[in-house]
Amino acid sequence: MIASLLLHSPDLFKGLREAVHLIVTGDPAVIDTTERTLLTAVKATGIAAMVGLPLGCGLGIGRFPGRRVLLVIGNSLTRVPPVVIGVLVLLLVMPASPFGGGPLAAFNWYTGTGSIVFAQTLLAVPVVIALTATAVQRVPVVLLEQARAFGAPGWKRGMLALREARSAVLAAILVALGLTIATIGAIIASGSQEFVRVPPPCRGDCSAAVTLAVGTLFNFRTSSGGAFGQDTEPLAVAYAVILIGLFFILAAGLTFLQQNRTSWVAGGQT
Fold it and tell me: What is the 3-state secondary structure (H, E, C) of the chain?
């Protein structure tokens, strides 16, 4: 095994050098795909945060019938395979299907990035809800009861809980962001014409570039006998290197949040 690795190491290092060259020189395909990936991921995560934070906070600190059932449902939805979400989005946004036009077909999301953002949002919302609910449940109950005693309405108590659990809440958002960046199944299954159509590696016009994760998959697949030729493999390696870098940054952010938990009320570390 080691001998085989050493035998093929020149080709391996050549591919890595070519990939690094594409990144350092600012290859249009790499830049365009990275920008598109981050843009769609940030959009989806932002929408998921706006929806998931209040719902997760309500489930975490609220006391109402059916709360536990909703928590179970929320936690269960975090395990739904991305490809299932993609198929659901496809049925909703596709102009024509065996079941007729989708109820969201009028938005024309199928012809652009809308279906991708929608699919990634549906993936991220349950994660934000579940992790936010867990985070605010760790806020001392006495703190929230004091706020109630001083006449704070429910939404203010929720803001207090989110503020006190801000490190864990921000970590939930980072986890959701990582999920949307790495999404493959939902993008492919949702059928977006702009993202599923993988062109040859562009050297100027990158208007139809794919996301990093999908680009890595398709370029590696086509480099081993597909229509695009062997020159797609360095591009796939470049995408993979950028993905690793992005997840390293996210991991560093999560570690920082875990090691710096402070309370705005009590002051100091918790």
Answer: CHHHHHHHHHHHHHHHHHHHHHHHCCCHHHHHHHHHHHHHHHHHHHHHHHHHHHHHHHHHHCCCCCHHHHHHHHHHHCCCCHHHHHHHHHHHHCCCCCCCCCCCHHHCHHHCCHHHHHHHHHHHHHHHHHHHHHHHHCCCHHHHHHHHHCCCCHHHHHHHHHHHCHHHHHHHHHHHHHHHHHCCHHHHHHCCHHHHCCCCCCCCCCCCCCCHHHHHHHHHHHHCCCCCCCCHHHHHHHHHHHHHHHHHHHHHHHHHHHHCCECCCCCCEC
